[in-house]
Give the backbone structure.
Amino acid sequence: MYDVIPFTVAVGGNYTFVMDDSPLFDGIAGIYSGSFDPNDPCTNLVGGDDDLPGIFESEPSFTVNLTPGTYYLVSSTWGAGQMGAYSWTFTGPAALQTPCVYRCYDVSALLSGAISVPAPLIEECSPYTVQKNIQLVGDECADQILEITYLVTDAFGYSATCVQEIAIENLEISDIVLPPGLVEMNYCGSGVTPGDVVAYFDVDSRGGAGIGAFQDDWTEADGSPAGVEELNEGNAYGYPHYYAVGRDGKLHAQKIDNNVCTIYASYTDQVIAACGAGCPGNSKVIRTWTLLDWCKVETKTYTQLIKAVDTKAPTFIVKDVTVSVNPWGCVANFAAPMPWELQDNCDATPEWWLKALQG
């Protein structure tokens, strides 16, 4: 499993690439000159990083000398099937150029202007006005085109038009990232719905207004790009998801709660008794996810095990008791008092008993 990012170099020199990867995997990468063939990954390799001495050096950053031309940055992981968010930053003598790629989930933001599109270069000596009309052309199951028509009028009434076409890429099932196969929540009575899983794994990573368990998950209302929810770490555990860029420039998991574009996600649960009677805080659910590509009429199923377990022992307090014994046998009969306080994380009526010490 790998990603390929094409880019062009205009100014030659030393460029340093740094991968900011997920703690869930160990990222590796390579840069290829001219072309990349996944069946022949050693050809055209000019630099990269895989933790080994030689052509690959430090993890997860490396410096490589590039001359003007076209290159391909290939990102992958050491472990097979590992997935997660990552991003690249670079430094060098000039900017690197990458093609603009817009996905189907960007359409609403493009139409509303929340995602800006570079405007065409206008050469005009007198003052001028620009009018812009945006429309989406094509079927959602085909290659849609976003057509932007510009009308430029100068101070003398002369005008010119140009049409900018932006290709919109659709999502496929292979683009969707699945949640972990095993999710264990060490909290008594945890709900096991996808929303409960999201809330359990959402952490307080940034202060401020928002939604989620810690009110730190920025949404469009808080300044995040249209339709993007930032910093809800639980999305990657509770739902099939994809990644979108937030206002901080990093990738954030976006849950597929019903559908995104033409990809639909649904699930069924099989509840299993995690233990016998008397341990109500434990539950185990076999969740079967089904992904549907509406356009290709393709499906994929995936099994996820959700466990909510009680790992906290009961606590209790007893009061000291003074008992008088008879003088002949130094013994006494008395009623042992109940624990003063008896509490369990899950069981509302925990059992207790006395055990005599030897001697």
